[in-house]
Design a protein that fits this description.
globular; 57% helix; two-stranded parallel sheet; alpha/beta; three-stranded parallel beta sheet; 120 residues
Length: 120
């Protein structure tokens, strides 16, 4: 629910364009969201006019929140607006993957390390 206490983060303003592909741009978005959620202050992230989004961008901007906060806290304080249905589906997959990863981070990291070692 939008009220005067909600702050709006416009992704296009932060990334200087309509393409969400760069991890450093996504980190700027995350860096605006994280402190607001930490203060339990509602935040709206507007993806209005963003034309291209890739999983890496959403993992960095939104997914890594699951490493710092319980899902219920994120659900209570974060609102996403301005995404089309395809991007919402992508965001849903990013969130599901982030929840799985952060619920068992050590096992995933160990598996990736083993996979990398086997490639050498």
């Amino acid at each position: 629910m939008m009220n005067m206490h909600n702050s709006v983060i416009r992704v296009t303003d932060l990334i200087g364009g309509r393409v969400g592909i760069a991890a450093d741009d996504a980190q700027r978005v995350y860096s605006k969201i994280e402190p607001r959620i930490r203060k339990r202050s509602p935040v709206v992230v507007s993806f209005e006019n963003v034309r291209i989004l890739v999983p890496l961008f959403l993992n960095t901007a939104i997914g890594q929140l699951y490493g710092s906060f319980d899902e219920s806290v994120i659900d209570d304080y974060l609102t996403i607006e301005g995404m089309d249905s395809d991007d919402l589906a992508l965001l849903s997959r990013v969130r599901a993957n982030a929840k799985r990863y952060y619920a068992n981070r050590e096992a995933y990291d160990n598996a990736w390390a083993l996979n990398d070692a086997l490639k050498e």
